[in-house]
Design a protein that fits this description.
about 140 residues, mainly alpha, about 60% helix, elongated
Length: about 140
């Protein structure tokens, strides 16, 4: 009977969210739940909206440097992502923070590079023609 009591007591401890055993079994994420994650996402969305409104307020669309940067991005084939990429700035447990940062950096890398350049395979005759080494009139 004492062994069953011990098992029942340990089982009860694993269900108490503030218990050290629960924290140990959950890899330190015992206090991090859906409510905390939603609050962190809300903080990030609010911060992102503030940044966007500030940048919009101080950026002159008629500035030659801004026009040049936009033209360069357009020539490089860089398009904005279909949805905003919000950086993970909220305080989270380390494992969750690392995962969110990795996801964000992967998404940024995916949208910062343009489409791959078109690769043309030319025969030696086509290559000579492109260089003007073959007379077309003959």
């Amino acid at each position: 009977m004492p062994a069953l009591d011990l098992v029942a007591h340990v089982h009860r401890l694993t269900r108490i969210r503030d218990a050290a055993l629960y924290d140990l079994l959950s890899d330190g994420l015992s206090h991090w739940g859906p409510h905390e994650e939603n609050t962190a996402l809300l903080l990030e969305a609010q911060s992102y909206a503030l940044e966007l409104s500030w940048v919009d307020r101080i950026t002159d669309p008629d500035d030659p440097a801004v026009k040049r940067e936009r033209a360069q991005a357009k020539r490089a084939g860089i398009k904005p992502p279909p949805h905003p990429l919000i950086p993970p700035i909220a305080h989270r447990p380390d494992s969750v923070a690392e995962q969110r940062l990795r996801e964000y950096l992967d998404a940024v890398a995916r949208y910062q590079t343009g489409p791959p350049p078109d690769v043309r395979h030319l025969t030696s005759v086509e290559f000579d023609r492109e260089l003007g080494l073959i007379d077309e009139s003959a």
